[in-house]
Amino acid sequence: MKTNKTYLAFLLFFLVFSAGVPLLAAEGGGSVGKVGIVRLSKVFDEYEQTKSSESALEDISNAKQSERERMVIEIRNMRDELLLLNQQGRAEKQKEIEEKMKSLALFERQAKEELQKKREESLRLIFEQIEGVVTEYARQNGFQMILSDRAVLYGEDYLDVTEDVIRVLNSRPTATAKR
Length: 179
What we know:
Elements: H1 4-18, H2 21-27, E1 35-38, H3 40-46, H4 48-82, H5 87-140, E2 145-148, H6 162-171
Parallel strand pairs: 1-2
């Protein structure tokens, strides 16, 4: 259920997350202590909260699609009835059909907007949780900084703390993403 917007959200998070790196190095007089690298895309994908959030969004999407299909069937049935009516009955039925079509269009637009808002809120909450765990992990393990792999051109494998971060994230009880 990944979209280009999800990847744009990743990119924005990476840029924000790594923006302070030059400042940290400058404040420390040019010396940097313990440094780690985290593959945020892997953390995001393997975080159980991401999976449950995606599942919840899929459920909402399926429910909206079912409602839309019900509305379409109702409009089709009304069109079939239209053929059996006299001239005056047809005009009235045609007005009803047009109103139903407007309602369908409004429903589709609102459903799309609602799903997008829920997706964005879910992503925001997940990124906040990931950022919180990375920060806590860094403090508890004596890191001066942990960088996103997107901000690093080269790093030794021993610097990668991704699996540790995933383990910590998935071991914690988390609030269910908003539906």
